[in-house]
Design a protein that fits this description.
Spore Coat Polysaccharide Biosynthesis Protein SpsA, Chain A, 259 residues, seven-stranded mixed sheet
């Protein structure tokens, strides 16, 4: 296996099936998939059986005790069997060269930062219902998707990006994540934390961010966004307190993870 694709999910089976369909059309076939489910629920079991015939899939679950995504990410790191780890969310459909470009770009000592297109409701519904695997540019423009420029595949166009790390489109060398002690499990509120915190600690450790814009393309399925302002405020305050630390390793991460 050249890399591990870690997909963070909760209970949206329809979205995960759309993502797995896009995994099937990846140019790079030599990857394993870890479905990292932050709850114990049988909603994905049929999908895992169906797509497990064509894709090497590991399915991890844990009790539904709140938003414990970072703990699941650490469990996925430990369960992975490769050194190159690609992280996405379970509602982000992948361009056929997505995995290939992460693999080509990633190396020890740097982490890869990608962007995403935010699809409109109509295009998203077509993908969810199996009418499309990935959208065309014309369809996205017609239906008023957001950030459609992020769908341009320009592998020869390297551009420095000042954008922050997105947890839905990033890749890391496993040894670098071990160096950082993985993701900080004290962030237990949605909307902020798992990417901002580890990006800050990685830079503090001397790891270099590397933009994969126009190469690792993904399409985020539309969904209604709940009001998370209070949760985000809590996590931001937590992060600003942690920024004063001298150590780039989190206290609760890979080393304290229960078996």
């Amino acid at each position: 296996m050249k890399a591990t694709l870690i997909i963070s999910v909760y209970k949206d089976a329809e979205a995960l099936e759309a993502v797995l369909k896009s995994v099937l059309i990846q140019v790079e076939k030599n990857i394993e998939v870890i479905v990292s489910q932050d709850c114990e629920d049988p909603c994905f079991d049929e999908l895992i059986r169906k797509y497990g015939q064509s894709i090497r899939i590991k399915h991890l679950q844990q009790p539904d005790l709140g938003f414990l995504k970072n703990k699941m990410l650490n469990r996925a790191i430990k369960a992975s069997s490769t050194d190159k780890l690609i992280f996405i969310d379970g509602d982000c459909v992948l361009h056929p060269r997505f995995a290939q470009q992460h693999i080509l770009s990633l190396r020890k000592g740097r982490f890869c930062i990608g962007r995403r297109v935010d699809l409109d409701p109509k295009t998203s519904q077509k993908i969810r219902k199996g009418l499309l695997v990935i959208p065309s540019f014309i369809e996205m423009i017609r239906n008023k998707s957001i950030r459609t420029e992020e769908s341009f595949f320009l592998p020869g166009f390297a551009k420095k990006s000042k954008g922050h790390l997105l947890g839905c489109n990033m890749s890391w060398h496993k040894s670098d994540l071990i160096l950082l002690n993985g993701f900080d499990e004290t962030y237990i509120n949605p909307g902020f934390g798992e990417d901002t915190d580890i990006e800050f600690r990685a830079k503090k450790a001397g790891l270099k961010p590397y933009s994969t814009r126009f190469r690792t393309i993904q399409y985020h399925l539309f969904h209604e966004r709940p009001d998370r302002e209070d949760f985000v405020t809590i996590s931001k305050n937590q992060f600003f307190e942690k920024k004063n630390r001298t150590d780039f390793r989190c206290q609760f991460g890979l080393e304290t993870l229960e078996a």
